[in-house]
Write a structure and sequence with these properties.
Bound molecules: nicotinamide-adenine-dinucleotide
Order of helices and strands: EHEHEHEHEHEHHE
CATH architecture: 3-Layer(aba) Sandwich
Strand order of the largest sheet: 3-2-1-4-5-6-7
Number of domains: 1
Strand content: 15-25%
Shape: globular
CATH topology: Rossmann fold
Helix content: 40-55%
Radius of gyration: 17 Å
CATH class: Alpha Beta
Largest sheet: 7 strands, parallel
Length: about 250
Amino acid sequence: MRLKDKVAIVTGAASGMGAATARRFGKEGAKVVIADMLEADGQAVALSINSAGGKAVFMHLDVTDEANWAKVVDETVKQFGRLDILVNNAGISGSATNDMLDSGLWKRLMEVNSTGVFLGTAAAVRQMRHNGGGSIVNLSSISGVVGQAFVHMGYNASKGAVRTMTKSTAVQFGADKIRCNTVHPGLMPPMRTSGATADPAVRAKMLKAVPLGRAGEVDEVANAVLFLASDEASYITGAELYVDGGYLAM
Ligand code: NAD
């Protein structure tokens, strides 16, 4: 088992890639905290992991709430004794509106996608220092590297911030044996909050820019997160792993 006895928090684990990652972690021997605002869906993911012989609990978390972060990390340590892995996966879509100049969406994107990752990193680093190290994996996107026609620039900016704050984390806390890396998914199943990028006509246009000629699957992202979270990536920090079918190679 690749994560035997590791304790992991996965944010946004009630849905999509977070749920796939949490399930994969459960199969690999980790004790997993499903941290999300969606209680019923999160409980269902935890139940599926426990029914398959793994160990998971649901905890309510709004990633924009610093006090909530402290509570989740404290409760994790109370239940499982330590924190080894944080996956900052929770996020909202940049195609929720067609108004590319909507300032309200800009603020919300930065708050959830960027500030949420900073607050999670701060809470985890404080705890991981006590454990003698840990691994943080942040979900950025192809949108954290390039601009796109159908995506609000707040999404690109928020994911670009995740990309660079990951490198800051790697540089500043390497001496504490804390590694931090990004995974950058490309065209994946739509997010719950997706608008235009869930439209089949828009997706068909986006597919033309994918060398592998298909959308990715949530388990393909979970595989990449698992590798970076695990000790197999013990000398990898500050790195970017693109899981995009070659989109960024074009
Ligand atoms: P999803 O919408 O299926 O899941 C996102 C999860 O985050 C949901 O469970 C939601 O409840 C949770 N969440 C949202 N706001 C939250 C908050 N404030 N506090 C706690 N939880 C919150 O999306 P997904 O496709 O699984 O995306 C996962 C991550 O991957 C996101 O960061 C997203 O930006 C990124 N990403 C997605 C795609 C894609 O096409 N789906 C592509 C590249 C990157």
